[in-house]
Amino acid sequence: MTELVDYADAVKRYDPVLGIEVHVELGTRTKMFCAAEVSFGAEPNSQTTPVSLGLPGALPVVNGKAVEYAIRIGLALNCEIAETCRFARKNYFYPDVPKNFQTSQYDEPIAHDGWVDVELEDGTIFRVDIERAHMEEDAGKNTHVGGSGRIHGAEYSLVDYNRAGIPLVEIVTRPIEGAGDRAPEVARAYVQTLRDIFRALDVSEARMERGNVRADVNVSLRPTPQDKLGTRTETKNVNSFRSVERAVRFEISRQAGVLDAGDRVIQETRHFHEEDGTTSSGRVKSDAEDYRYFPEPDLVPVAPSREWVEQIRAGLPELPAARRRRLQGEWGYADAEMRDVVNAGAVDLIEATVAAGATPAAARKWWMGELARKAKQAEVSLDEVAITPAQIAQLQQLIDAGRINDKIARQVLEGVLVGEGDPEAVVVARGLEVVSDDGALLEAVDAALAAQPDIAEKVRGGNLGPVGAIIGAVMKATKGQADAQRVRELVLERIGA
User: Architecture of 438-495 per CATH?
Assistant: First the structure.
């Protein structure tokens, strides 16, 4: 077994180079080459046609919407869009690819030679060059029953062909060099940037937990940046940002151990294990020639007109990076504040809260403060907390109107989170509205002064410090629902100070 090298030591002595292949399932109504419908969670093998099952004599037809979505992605990644491109057969056997070949693109992708800038957590911008973005179809899904859930040791396997034929775009980077010890962070930020772009373009739900977005992560090491590229491994189907980062970190440590032992890194695919962040050997990695690509004879070339491409370009939405810059200016956040918001996944939540009537400062206070703590405690993402931006805006409006204070607002928040209704309903049901009636407040002030008669004399003597004790007693008597400023005014009036 390879002895792992400490990560910090590994990146001191070796230069890591990455290559990332991101697959995104397109959100079309039907599959890439047939009219079978696409929806998540359908009964197994209920969304198939002779084409997606690879039956003899079935002929494919290209999905025009999928081509449009692929062009959108290419343009958003600053790629050149091919004037003509074609599909190819990629030959290999997997039980979830019923044709025994995948219809993909090889030497003529629809988009090529692009780039995307990714922002790291400290605000550093790192440019990743895109080699190509090409169209293809997804495979089906294997379920291995018994054992560890993998094919080895399973009692039997089931195949669901619903996913077979779903449109995919695969984005392939050029070698990502110069990341150094930040290589895992760069990989994570790159995949997250692409996910955000897919959502902004509305070409996919881009839910990684459903497999809408998957990353194959290539890692190699070399002694110095001046040396030729080392032998790469490809960790397949990594489906979370955290896992992408962990897979890169582990492979760097593992490959450094292999090289330190005088062995050579094997070019292979590897499996990532969520439970411990390790990878394990899969199969010896094939090169392009092993797939015996040849032009797909049943499909004509795709030749998007320049007019259509420019129409698509003109209709592109605001992309995430530009949107963040605009919102930061509108909200008046400092660079560090905006980075925190982005890293917390709170941009959409704050934007919706501001749209519902809250100030940017108030929206940030709630989402980055109390609600971020709640999310961390529950080990969920911020958008999974059981409260809406509209409810946060309503909560802040109750504070601004003087009907509740910040302390009470936290009680109201608890009520909303446990399902007692909107903030207004919680305030009414729990009787939490601030006590602002002078009669009720004076009664509490008089009781507090009677209980501590020496305080009045100290205050009359010019020492205002003890007033706080009376205010505290009144707040306690009113269960924190008194207006503290009004209480202070009434105390001083009563004492005659």
Answer: Orthogonal Bundle (1.10)
